[in-house]
Design goal:
By secondary structure, the protein is α/β, with parallel strands linked by helices. 26% of the residues lie in helices and 25% in strands. The strands form two sheets. Strands 4-3-7-6-5 form a five-stranded antiparallel β-sheet, covered by helices on one side. A three-stranded parallel β-sheet has the order 1-2-8, with helices on one face.
């Protein structure tokens, strides 16, 4: 969604369907892609998505916040920063392999509340964004503040210790 009036599903839809479904999965990941590398789920985008769907605390749609399942990713992305872009999704196993092979410095991006690192392979620079306990904790706190549940994509792609924060 690009703005409050340009959305596929809004507060009115939530109210209309609330009595007919058990919940709504709000996908708040895949913000960036190979042609536009960056964080998977910037916190401000998550907040914007929740605010757009549940516009005012205490409103009728806020009563239904428990029906929202905030989508968080247990996978990451390895983006090419040169040679025309590209890249794609990585699993926990891929993430560990990259850490062991390139020994990069993990950096925290305050703007997105996500960790990332940069590495080079055969002259091609890469940016890797992958969830960590801290980034997951921030998102879990946000869901809890709204009274929302969680929707995880995809459990088998994460690191075993991700369950420690749940």
């Amino acid at each position: 969604m690009e703005g409050p009036n340009n959305q596929d599903f809004g507060p009115e839809d939530l109210l209309q369907l609330a009595d007919s479904v058990g919940g709504f999965s709000l996908m708040t990941y895949d913000f960036s892609g190979p042609q536009n590398p960056g964080p998977s789920a910037p916190l401000k985008w998550i907040q914007y998505s929740l605010t757009t769907l549940l516009p005012a605390k205490g409103s009728a749609s806020q009563v239904h916040s428990h029906m929202i399942f905030l989508g968080i990713n247990f996978y990451g992305n390895d983006f090419l920063l040169s040679k025309g872009g590209g890249g794609g999704s990585i699993t926990g196993r891929d993430f560990i392999h990259l850490l062991e092979k390139y020994k990069p410095s993990l950096q925290w991006d305050d703007k997105s509340s996500e960790h990332f690192f940069i590495y080079s392979d055969k002259g091609v620079r890469h940016a890797v964004f992958y969830p960590t306990l801290l980034s997951l904790s921030v998102r879990l706190d946000e869901a809890q503040d709204w009274g929302a549940g969680l929707s995880i994509w995809e459990i088998g792609q994460g690191l075993d210790y991700f369950f420690d924060v749940l």
